TrEMBL record, chains A, B:
Species name: Cellulomonas iranensis
CDD domains, sorted: PGDH (cd05288)
Xref: SMART domains: PKS_ER
InterPro entries: ADH-like_C (IPR013149), ADH_N_2 (IPR041694), ER (IPR020843), GroES-like_sf (IPR011032), MDR_fam (IPR045010), NAD(P)-bd_dom_sf (IPR036291)
Gene3D superfamilies, sorted: Medium-chain alcohol dehydrogenases, catalytic domain (3.90.180.10), NAD(P)-binding Rossmann-like Domain (3.40.50.720)
UniProt entry tagged with the keyword Magnesium: no
Protein name, per record: NADPH-dependent curcumin reductase CurA
Ranges where the Enoyl reductase (ER) domain occurs: 17-332
Length: 336, 336
């Protein structure tokens, strides 16, 4: 008998999600069918974009269905196989989401290379989705150029902690990051390649950014929105480009906040604000993987994980991540 | 003796400009020097962007200096010449601005072709700056594609009245315009190539746009900002592109209005908002002139002028234009 513990969406959250919006279920799977495999997860991902899918609103991906398991990235290992392409022991990446184990067709899993001494979880961040997000935002969206001054909001998060390093590797000049604690600000400059960093919880994001970027910014990689976008619009040099990746400051509000009061700068300075999600840029994954594997292998990519143990604490991990409790990637470790 | 009447900026307007912010002066010019010409203007241009230059704030062009003549587009004819390149009688375009006559080096004027039966003023709009603005916004900024649904705010103005027609000529599908009076709305569909139009002063721009664009919009050409930008963000299809050309709704406010409350759509729908001014796109002028001369010669470009007579009424014309009193291009006719 193969049993899994899964977290389902029980109700659509209003504002901040609560435990009542989710339900933990035990699922007993039927006999393994030809072409199926059974996987025990090692790490399950919790990501900001999931909050949007919990709403029943138009977005680039369909909303999560009520009463179904929350899908998303996870990595694990095949423990039983009825498909020759994925023998027992294979490390796999998949999108089955918040569960400690999965039984599903082999075609819904992708084998990943194991790197000696490196946890499988890197395929959920620096070598996976969040690393690709950083790369796409800097290259395809913001068109990073040699010597550009780059500002990154939410710079100590899963995406932001890669953005600074990739920007430097791609030739950026000054790279500036904001984060929400003194520890994170320290990590930005000591670990993640940022030249200068500030704590947005100290207030006056506009003033702090202006002080950090006396010659203005050319590229803005936004994970936060709100006052960070407003500050960037004031700091932009002519022809500046913003890659709008996330706006976590507004994900759990029940009222929609007004936008920045200085959008007129977009016209007078000839700025470009481009939003993106990975869906339209998966064709860049091979190019990214080649570059990142090289950097990673050379030991030039620093990363951190904030790990919560136990699938039953997935919702806690998700909420902690939304509150900014993580440095680097927030993960749920399933197999202890 | 060569005397000109010029309008100078006397004070920086706070909010809506008043006559007290300007001063009319008579200038007696010295003897004509080698290389100079004297020009009597036929038409002087008043344009929305001039309002921005009246403020002492950073912008793509320097602010107007206090106590100097307001510069900008004008067309006229050489009446005395001390430069063989511009003989008496030559029709010229220049940037000397709000004056009934100019004495200046020949190099600061550009000879323009006269088209039989067509007033020189077309070089101040459809064959000039505003036509080029429409063309650049649709092509270089918004990347107009065959079949795109296009929404244009302030569509009956000098720029907007060209945008609809050029969009159609370049292969757009449905083209939707907004304007501020029933007469203008009628002109949009009867003269300017729009498929459907609405009066934004009837309110509910979001609802009116949604009704006009049941299948969403792909391109937004914005001259207005404010509620028009907000409405467009709700109407955009995935991958939509906005050319932000102007935001006249905010030019005369003394407080900065908050931005749209739905900027999150930029991310979830993968939108691009790009501001622009002509300064960076003058290299497209030859391409535009070739295309527009062809369309214009074929009689396919409709245009209108709202003309105020007399250089002494230039400020009235400017204020009327800011209030939307014009259909098509607002001009001051100087030589009666």
């Amino acid at each position: 008998m193969f049993v899994s513990t899964q977290i389902q969406l029980a109700a659509r959250p209003q504002g901040w999600p609560t435990h009542d919006d989710f339900r933990t279920v035990q699922v007993t799977h039927g006999p393994l069918q030809d072409g199926e495999v059974r996987v025990r997860n090692a790490f399950v991902s919790v990501d900001p974009y999931m909050r949007g899918r919990m709403n029943d609103t138009r977005s680039y991906v369909a909303p999560y269905a009520l009463g179904e398991t929350v899908t998303g990235g996870a990595v694990g290992r095949v423990v039983e196989s009825a498909d020759p392409s994925l023998p027992v022991g294979t490390a796999v990446l998949h999108q089955h989401g918040w569960s400690d184990a999965v039984q599903a067709p082999a075609s819904t899993f992708r084998a990943v290379a194991e790197i000696p001494g490196v946890p499988l979880s890197v395929h959920l961040h620096v070598l996976g989705m969040t690393g690709l997000t950083a790369y796409v935002g800097l290259t395809a969206i913001a068109g990073l150029r040699e010597g550009d001054t780059v500002f990154v909001s939410g710079a100590a998060g899963a995406v932001g902690s890669s953005v600074g390093q990739i920007a430097k590797l791609l030739g950026a000049g000054r790279v500036i990051g904001s984060a929400g604690s003194a520890e994170k600000v320290d990590a930005l400059t000591s670990r993640y390649g940022y030249d200068v960093a500030f704590n947005y919880k100290d207030g006056d994001v506009r003033g702090q950014l202006a002080a950090a970027a006396p010659d203005g910014i050319d590229v803005f990689f936004d994970n936060v929105g709100g006052d960070h976008l407003e500050a960037a619009l004031d700091a932009f040099n002519d022809g500046g480009r913003a890659a709008l990746c996330g706006a976590i400051s507004g994900y759990n509000t029940t009222t929609r906040a007004p936008g920045p009061d200085n959008l007129a700068n977009v016209i007078t300075r000839g700025l470009t604000l481009q939003g993106f999600t990975l869906a339209g840029y998966l064709h860049l994954a091979p190019e990214f993987t080649q570059a990142m594997t090289g950097w990673f292998g050379a030991g030039t990519i620093a990363y951190d994980e904030t790990v919560v143990d136990g699938i039953e604490h997935t919702v806690d991990a998700f909420l902690d991540m939304m509150r900014g409790a993580n440095t680097g990637k927030m993960l749920v470790r399933v197999d202890g």
